[in-house]
């Protein structure tokens, strides 16, 4: 199980991303339309004033059951350990252990 502080930090990032998504998108669209170099610098400074954790690339995928960030399977939202346990128990439909 991941540390509670890491999970809480990830939740905080998610809220910041949701809050600033529209504002960040508008600033980036302004940046694409401007041709003057000085205007581009001013728009970049405006973008840099936003919180760092409001950027979507700061988001980390985590297992919904354990909070583990490594070995994450996007299709299931689980880490590899939990995926293996749940598939052996038959809790995931359509998943079975392969053998040949």
UniProtKB/TrEMBL annotation:
<keyword id="KW-0687">Ribonucleoprotein</keyword>
<dbReference type="GO" id="GO:0005737">
    <property type="term" value="C:cytoplasm"/>
</dbReference>
<protein>
    <recommendedName>
        <fullName>Small ribosomal subunit protein uS14c</fullName>
    </recommendedName>
</protein>
<dbReference type="Pfam" id="PF00253">
    <property type="entry name" value="Ribosomal_S14"/>
</dbReference>
<dbReference type="GO" id="GO:0015935">
    <property type="term" value="C:small ribosomal subunit"/>
</dbReference>
<keyword id="KW-0689">Ribosomal protein</keyword>
<dbReference type="InterPro" id="IPR018271">
    <property type="entry name" value="Ribosomal_uS14_CS"/>
</dbReference>
<dbReference type="InterPro" id="IPR001209">
    <property type="entry name" value="Ribosomal_uS14"/>
</dbReference>
<comment type="similarity">
    <text>Belongs to the universal ribosomal protein uS14 family.</text>
</comment>
<dbReference type="InterPro" id="IPR023036">
    <property type="entry name" value="Ribosomal_uS14_bac/plastid"/>
</dbReference>
<dbReference type="GO" id="GO:0006412">
    <property type="term" value="P:translation"/>
</dbReference>
<keyword id="KW-0934">Plastid</keyword>
<dbReference type="GO" id="GO:0003735">
    <property type="term" value="F:structural constituent of ribosome"/>
</dbReference>
């Amino acid at each position: 199980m991941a540390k509670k502080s890491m999970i809480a930090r990830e939740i905080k990032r998610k809220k910041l991303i949701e809050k600033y998504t529209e504002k960040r998108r508008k600033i980036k669209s302004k940046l694409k339309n401007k041709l003057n170099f000085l205007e581009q610098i001013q728009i970049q400074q405006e973008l840099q004033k936003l919180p760092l954790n409001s950027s979507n690339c700061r988001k980390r995928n985590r297992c919904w059951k354990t909070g583990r960030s490594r070995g994450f399977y996007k299709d299931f939202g689980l880490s590899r350990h939990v995926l293996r346990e749940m598939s052996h128990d038959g809790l995931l439909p359509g998943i079975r252990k392969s053998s040949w």
